[in-house]
């Protein structure tokens, strides 16, 4: 094997080992993941975390944050069906998590859909999330702090077109930034990796983006010091579950079912043969 | 062929063409459908719209209406889990949509279950929806402006028994009124058509009524000037997806999955062989 | 047959007859079950009730209680995604139901997760629920009136370890208390029965606990004077549906689908061959 190919092979093996190790840790430790999330995604998000081995808790009331949040292993905040009443609890949960040294992950759904939403997302970005995951339009909206880049919750930008925005946002926020798309891009503002797993039909299932953000929280929970690796691993693992599910699916609804079943059953052989993460 | 049968055949062909054309338009244009809806239905409603090719956005906060609603292609308002806090946003979204010339569709879930709910629905009816879709009990409650006609969210009236109520409501409101049932009835207050597709087990899946209302919004979005035809087409298309799904289903949960898959895969041949819409 | 075995056989036959009779009654009478429940569970809870033959209504607004709640057949209150705004309606619905002689069932999700949540649950317990169903950690938290016994929404206690707590809670509250687990325990504070149906993977599906609590409400609705028997029957019926579903499942998501389908199709032969309820 050529030295360059050898490096690539080693690199691939190292990512497979990383992803499998983290998935095993989730199954062994069953980390408690608090999700303050939108109404649409709660079911799929909880089932995604359960299938991966984590323990989800959809607890969003500000009255519970001080008692509950210090006991979690990671927090996921998603602004999908945002209203002013929910924002104080998101803010407080982020602060309590940070103070307790627990990682937290932000999903800035439709960040550019309104001024209210953009300001809420920018404020949350300022509260030091460990990871921010969105689609191209959302990351561009956050990076430029401007509305109008997105059409609703679906992206009108390819992930590759948001690479500079992602780097810039990662540098200014200190968070790992992930952009979902045909290729998922993950960056800490300097290093950039691409995760290539997944199938297009996953975008025809509501809340798959939200669900993978929760899964990132699960992965970061068991390896908080390597958030970039944990994020890329979660994105690939979810994508692989989608690929395996797609082999059995007849449409978006059966894909959703098979994706969750596949995530539950995922083994090292499947990860090893399918995982594709590379430096960009 | 006898002249009368020839007319019927032409009529059928014209409905098939209409329904297929609208479905193609949704798939091509991916209209943005804002849904202010109940908590139970959000998942199925979003997945129904995605499977049909539309882009759903569950954005319900009054703070976002002025920025977001002018950019949508149609609005769906559903009062299923109504609370006073949500009503102002429903009102404002309906007004902004109307002012921007965007069609909007009302689902008066359990309209007769309480005075609060009935009054909210009547107020929304006064804001000029393009289409109102309910079951027999809901349309009767709205038409008579009286509570007690319905037992919870399930209808205690057949759609045919609500025909006069539907005509009367259509005339007084200016909306197209659709009554779901074994036969779906659609009227503008003068003309009445019946849509015969669907299977009884669809009523054993929660939120199928809500989902078809959202689908109507998708169809009206791509043909706002022919709301009666768009509404009848959406009801038949959803019913046909249910019929095809039923061939593979073992119960309500597998029917739900196959229905969504079938909607995603629906082609002209299936519509042509199954669609049944006639004048009444 | 030995006299002792004969008694056991008679006992088993009597439970089979009880469970089948109640399920038939639900299918015949379609009782109206009001659910004030968490956002995560609404879909599965409604579909569980529909598949069993009941008519669910997720109506939670305090403005509707006086009009609507007197017409229901049973009420289910679940505190999963509790916030202060929802508590007054829960309180009022419980009071109106009790005053109207309608049974109501409490699901104290994650009762020990915070002081706010524990106090809310204890207050609801004081409003005389007919049945309380939780996991081991939740029943212990309620019985000891102390937080910290539970890790999020998943139990860290086996049901058997909560037996004394369940008896004590039943005695102090006057409610039937059910503890879900590998064995479901049901007690009125004196008599204790165990229900053995179900499969472990049901815990990997979000909201199965919530769903079975709603099913208990359905069973108690058609036999309010025998709440212990109705509760044990509902737990076994749901467990049997899970067992049958498990024979066809490849993971948690397909199990969820097959469970609901199986509940819909459940017949006396399956109940007779699988049901296992015994005195403890």
Automatic annotation (TrEMBL), chains A, B, C:
Known pathway: Cofactor biosynthesis; thiamine diphosphate biosynthesis; 4-methyl-5-(2-phosphoethyl)-thiazole from 5-(2-hydroxyethyl)-4-methylthiazole: step 1/1
Catalysed conversion reaction: 5-(2-hydroxyethyl)-4-methylthiazole + ATP = 4-methyl-5-(2-phosphooxyethyl)-thiazole + ADP + H(+)
MF GO annotations: ATP binding; hydroxyethylthiazole kinase activity; magnesium ion binding
GO-annotated biological processes: thiamine salvage
Record-listed E.C. numbers: 2.7.1.50
Keywords tagged on the record: ATP-binding, Kinase, Magnesium, Metal-binding, Nucleotide-binding, Thiamine biosynthesis, Transferase
Necessary cofactors: Mg(2+)
Domain of life: Eukaryota
Pfam families cross-referenced by the UniProt entry: HK (PF02110)
Family listed: Belongs to the Thz kinase family.
Known role: Thiazole kinase involved in thiamine salvage pathway.
Protein name from the UniProt record: Hydroxyethylthiazole kinase
Origin species: Dovyalis caffra
